[in-house]
Write a structure and sequence with these properties.
Blueprint: H1 5-16, H2 44-51, H3 64-75, H4 79-90, H5 133-140, E1 147-149, H6 150-167, H7 175-192, E2 199-201, H8 202-211, H9 228-242, H10 251-255
Antiparallel strand pairs: 1-2
Helix pairs in contact: 3-4, 5-6, 6-7, 6-9, 7-9
Amino acid sequence: MKINLVVIATILVQSSAMPSFIERDDPFSNWKPAGLGDVRGPCPMTNTLANHGFLPHSGKNITEADVLYALPYYLNMDDTTAQGLFKIALTTVLTPNATTFDLSDLSHHNILEHDGSLSRLDYYFGDNHDFDQGVFDQTKRYFTDSTIDLQTATNARLARVLTSNYTNPTFGLSTIGTLFSFGETAAYIGVFGDSVSGTVNTSWIEYFFENERLPVELGWSKRPDVSSAVLGSLFDRVVNATGTSFPYPASDVHLGKR
């Protein structure tokens, strides 16, 4: 029997680009929270992807291939956004020249993690990585309708920042922290809602934050376009709706330049 070396080479190249976890037949139904030895961080979306098994469930040693597979395949983000977010995540790893990260690395204060989170306590108050219902209750106090529009989402974000500034004696937002604070609001509208109208189903957002689970059972499916251009436009709209400005172009949000 002849061995086709071209086929073997193709398989080896493709396998090197595949994620380090094994995908299940019906991944949405295999959700489970972190268990003994697993780690999670302050980012609800990366926690959610790990809970679904779309990123390694352990939350450890997440590779570029993992991110470049999970974000485009399950959220319809483009490769540019996924790669930029991976590069930014590596900046939270304290080991020099790291090529992988753990979700717990994202908890390192004032790198990506920031004060005034929508769902986490500030670092000053202790636990800045686990979901905090009291903090999220402050956020969702603004979600008074069945749909969240962009101005409502913006107001909820700003209220959390102002509350944090008032109550936290060490409050501060770095440039990249400010970027992510705006970007997180833009992202949940883009990933779960209508990027044109800037609206999103309230129950989906509450379910996502409170369960760290994609709201498939409530009717959500991945959006047709969560490209860097779409997220950049939403970012600009959130900034503008806040009545402020951000000193860098929106494209920097997705390319990991800032």
